[in-house]
Design a protein that fits this description.
The complex is a heterodimer of chains A (about 290) and B (about 300). With about 290 residues, chain A is mainly alpha-helical. Chain A has helices at about 1-40, 45-50, 60-70, 80-110, 115-125, 130-145, 150-175, 180-185, 190-220, 225-230, 235-240, 250-285. Chain A has 12 helices and no strands. Chain B has one domain (about 20-295): MetI-like (MetI-like fold). Classes of the chains: A mainly alpha (about 290), B mainly alpha (about 300). Chain A: InterPro entries: BP-dep_ABC_trans_perm, MetI-like, MetI-like_sf.
């Protein structure tokens, strides 16, 4: 009896401990983001207040209004940055997906010499630190005269995204059984038709999530963009974020608002792909 | 003229190879060349002067470079280990939860969506000595009366950067390890329990070996973009105060763009690239080995 009750107590204790741990972990994960959102809604006086104001008294969307209201407060051309980011990210994602699909299909369906070597080689190009890559690219692009253009950024992001896109798409094509395409070919499809009508639709969701992943990489990239872009012609949002810092002061509220604008598309897209992303990355590990 | 006939996989891989060669391999070869010249952006003709290994010698004998190098290695070691352990813990916590797993998993992915620049900015804000959340909270709770100079003191700044880095990347580990936990068959665990293993032994000898490949995938993915710590550091401290948080990558950026000494910077960059590549190859090897081991056991 005594033994039983102590055991029960211990189990209940462990359960409470587990819940507390979970709660704390989630708090640490979510709090920074929530704090940014909250700060973007508060007037600067309240952010700066000493002693701190914990319960917001004055919530408004002024920061967003100022930001999108053209060259008003601070005069940061958020619309242009937003447009640049969208154009560059979307175009580079589409191109990377096309190239990645060809490459991923080759890795998933064909046997050829030096396959794992080529795969590793692709991955290694991704491992080159952005800042190190930016030096020669800067020199070459400056010479060719494409610095500060969309073209330059798109080209870079395509190259940046191709290796990882291939990795993901390779995994997704492997999940589609080979027999299906073969059956379709026996039924009179060409290989090309079999690909588009059987394999592509089945791997579709996976390919879409690889695309979203590529989009996010381009959307968030900073090290290269900060060197290759110069003006409103091609500056992207991550680079634009720095416009809010000047030598001695930082417009915290404006920065917070821009941060929220940046995070919302990323947030939405990641929620959509989360399931596929994990299965694409782990596939190779489970099935070899 | 007739083109030589290419096999299907070569043809399919060709676009990828062309893009990667044009945008990454060729520029890298060019930068390899320029690392043997005293090239400065302000003096374009200096690209044609060949000085042999002088840049490398001056980099390798440079005290500043070695401190940055050592700091980078220390930072990565601490951050990656912390991420691994915290990710494992987080995955186990979420896996144990009986209700609301879906929403927990979604919350867990939250930091992954933040661009490194945002992470840097966010922690710069939180750790601000005057108006930051951390100091405000500590002062309101009465832990300390004076403001702690998180980003102004060298050691604390490094600590803050590690916190930011860990916050942003733990979820990569957590998610992949959780995927492993979810895919894991329950029989071996039960068998171990029946055979009288303690929970620790069950974890150590049954669960952990199973999770290894997943941890290595996470490590491999992380090793592909360790350099994004550059973004975080750039925003949070920009290598300051007094170069106490200078990493390899911020040093390269400063030498190249502020000092305009491209040749020297390229020599440094090459050392950084080699470091990244070694790192990646190492984890790919580990990944392949872990994969084979699992395959053999099944």
């Amino acid at each position: 009896m005594d033994h039983n009750s102590s055991h029960r107590l211990k189990r209940r204790g462990l359960k409470v401990l587990h819940l507390v741990g979970l709660f704390l972990a989630m708090l640490v994960i979510c709090l920074p983001g929530l704090w940014i959102v909250l700060s973007s809604l508060r007037p600067t006086v309240e952010i700066m207040a000493k002693p701190p104001v914990w319960i917001p008294r004055d919530i408004s969307l002024d920061a967003y209004r100022a930001m999108f209201g053209g060259a008003g407060q601070g005069g940061i051309p958020v619309w242009e940055y937003f447009r640049n980011s969208l154009i560059i990210s979307i175009t580079s994602t589409i191109i990377a997906l096309i190239i990645g699909m060809a490459g991923g299909y080759a890795f998933a369906r064909f046997k050829f010499k030096g396959k794992s070597g080529v795969f590793l080689g692709f991955m290694l190009t991704r491992a080159v630190p952005g800042i190190a890559l930016s030096l020669p690219l800067f020199m070459i692009f400056a010479r060719v005269g494409v610095i500060d253009t969309h073209f330059a950024m798109i080209l870079i992001y395509v190259a940046l995204n191709v290796p990882f896109t291939i990795w993901l798409i390779d995994g997704f094509f492997r999940q589609v059984p080979k027999d299906l395409a073969e059956a379709a070919q026996i039924d009179g499809c060409t290989r090309w038709q079999a690909f588009w009508q059987v394999e592509f639709p089945l791997a579709g969701p996976g390919i879409a999530s690889a695309g979203i992943f590529a989009f996010l990489t381009s959307w968030n990239e900073y090290a290269l963009a900060s060197q290759i872009t110069r003006s409103v012609n091609s500056k992207t949002l991550p680079v634009g974020l720095l416009d809010y810092t000047s030598e001695f002061t930082i417009d915290w509220r404006g920065m917070c608002a821009l941060a929220v604008v940046m995070i919302i598309p990323a947030l939405t897209l990641t929620f959509i792909i989360q399931k596929h992303l994990v299965s694409g990355l782990t596939f190779g590990a489970v099935k070899g | 003229m007739k083109l030589p006939k290419l096999s299907a996989p070569t043809l399919l891989l060709l676009p990828a190879i062309i893009v990667l060669a044009a945008v990454i391999v060729l520029p890298l070869l060019f930068s390899l060349y320029s690392s043997f010249t005293p090239f400065r952006l302000t003096k374009p003709e200096s690209i044609w002067v060949f000085i042999g290994f002088r840049n490398y010698v001056s980099v390798l004998t440079n005290y500043e470079f070695w401190t940055a190098f050592g700091r980078t290695v220390v930072l990565l070691t601490i951050a990656l280990n912390a991420e691994m352990f915290l990710g494992l813990g987080l995955a186990m916590l979420v896996n144990k939860a009986t209700r609301g797993q879906r929403i927990l998993r979604t919350l867990m992915m939250f930091p992954m969506m933040f661009s490194p620049v945002l992470v840097g900015f966010q922690f710069k804000f939180l750790f601000n000595d005057n108006i930051g959340f951390v100091n405000n909270a500590l002062q309101s709770l009465g832990v300390t009366t004076s403001a702690i100079p998180w980003l102004i003191d060298g050691n604390l700044a490094l600590f803050s950067i590690i916190v930011a880095e860990v916050w942003s990347s733990t979820s990569v580990f957590a998610i992949l390890i959780l995927a492993g936990l979810l895919a894991m068959p329950q029989e071996p665990v039960e068998a171990a329990r029946v055979d009288g293993c303690t929970p620790w032994q069950t974890f150590r000898y049954v669960t952990w070996p199973y999770l290894m490949p997943f941890a290595f995938i996470a490590m491999t993915i992380r090793s592909l973009d360790v350099a994004r710590a550059y973004d975080i550091v750039k925003i949070m401290t920009d290598g300051g105060p007094a170069k106490r948080t200078e990493l390899l990558w911020t040093l390269v950026g400063r030498t190249a763009y502020s000092d305009a000494r491209m040749g020297l910077a390229n020599a440094m960059a090459y050392i950084a690239i080699l470091l990244s590549i070694l790192f990646t190859v190492y984890f790919f090897r580990k990944l392949a080995a872990a994969r084979q081991q699992i395959g053999a056991e099944w």
